[in-house]
Every structure is written in C-alpha cells, then in structure tokens.
Amino acid sequence: MRRSLGLAASLLGGLVLVCGIASMPFPSDAADVCPANAKNANLNLGLKDINGKPATLSDYKGKVVLLDFWATWCPPCKKEIPGFIELYNSYKSRGLVVVGVSMDEEISDVKKFAKQIGMNYPILIGYGRDDELEKAFGTLPLPTAFVISRDGKICAKHDGLTPKEQFEREISSLF
Predict the structure, then answer these.
(1) What pLDDT score was predicted for residue 35?
(2) Model confidence at 34, in pLDDT bands (50, 70, 90)?
(3) How many CB atoms lie within 10 A of CB 19?
(4) Strands 96-102 and 144-148, how do they pair?
(5) Is residue 19 situated within a structural domain?
(6) Residue 119 is assigned to a structural domain of this protein
(7) How far is Cα 130 from Cα 112, in angstroms, rounded to an integer?
(8) Is residue 34 annotated as part of the catalytic site, yes or no?
(9) What does each C-alpha distance from 121 to 48, 93, 115, 171 come to in angstroms?
(10) How far apart are CA 137 and CA 52, in angstroms?
(11) E strands, the chain, where?
C-alpha cells in the first residue's frame, strides 16, 4: 500500500511538473528576431544589378530578405557566400530572397566571382553609392548583412563574419 501511494505521489508530482512547464510562456522566435520597435528598411533605394538593370528592395516586398553587403576583395565576405547560396536554395520556395550588394568598383570582377562560386541570387551594385547606403543602413563594414521581414522591418543586423546557422534561425522564424 505504501509503495502504491509513493508511486501515485511520484506520478502526480511528475504530472504537475509537466503541466507547469507546458503552461509557461515561451518567447516566440519571431519576436526575438524582429522586435516591435524594428526600423523600416529603405525599400525605395534605387541601385542597379550586375547587368545594369534598375532595382530596388521594394522589388522583393512580401519576401523575407537577407541583404548582404560584400566585396570580392573581402575574405570574410567570400567565406559567407556559400552559406547564403545554401540558405537561398533551401528557403526560396518559402519566400526567402538573398540579395547581395557588391561594393566592388569593377563589375567584371563581380560577374566573374559570382559565376565562379555559383551565386544564384540577385546581385546589386553599391559601389559609388556609399553616402546613400550609409544614410539608409548606417555604417557598413564588410561584410554586413541584414535580415528583413516580409513587411520591410530590419529584424537583425550582422557586422562581420556570421555563422550560417545564425541567419537560418533568424530567417526560419520569419516564415
């Protein structure tokens, strides 16, 4: 009888513990990534793609955007790009677009590098637009990447080499 009461008490205690944990409020990943006071990205900033065609970030409104400022002469930038290609391939069907903004002077260098490494996402040219870009996004040490929500909010900014897994956590919480 004592053994039965002990077992019943243990089971009841376990049930209370499980119910208590289940009722605890857990923070939403999306709320952690994109705070309520997140700033709006300047979606109307006009740039050109590597073929000279005009483009703006508003072209990607309604998508989750990973906006990467990079250059071919920047070793950490080049190290991040294969991860961005993987993320784009994995999540483009869910509404992700990776947009690379090259800060290179020579577009031919950008085209050559993009082909060599297999960049399959939009590449815009930011060279010569430093003042406008800084006004829109702040200081841009290379690499700098932003995670932008479907509604155009800047949810995260990363200066310097950032692990792909960090971007993946932030991006996947916005779908």
Answers:
(1) 87
(2) confident
(3) 9
(4) unpaired
(5) no
(6) yes
(7) 23
(8) no
(9) 14, 13, 11, 16
(10) 22
(11) 46-49, 54-56, 64-70, 96-102, 123-125, 144-148, 154-159
3-state class (DSSP) for residue 38: coil
Q: What order do you get walking across the sheet with 46-49 strand by strand?
A: 54-56, 46-49, 123-125, 96-102, 64-70, 144-148, 154-159
Record the tokens describing residue 136, joined without a space: 């829109």
**103-155 pLDDT, tens per residue?**
999 999 999 999 999 999 999 999 999 999 999 999 999 999 999 999 999 99
Q: Higher pLDDT residue, 5 or 152? A: 152
Spot the catalytic one: 34, 74, 77, 155: 77
Find the domain containing 52 and state its range. Answer: 28-172
38 lies in some domain: yes
Domain count within the chain: 1
Q: Is pLDDT above 90 for 166?
A: yes
Q: Report helix angle 75-91 to 164-172, nearest 10.
A: 40
Of the chain, the percentage scoring pLDDT greater than 90 comes to: 75
CATH number of domain containing 42: 3.40.30.10
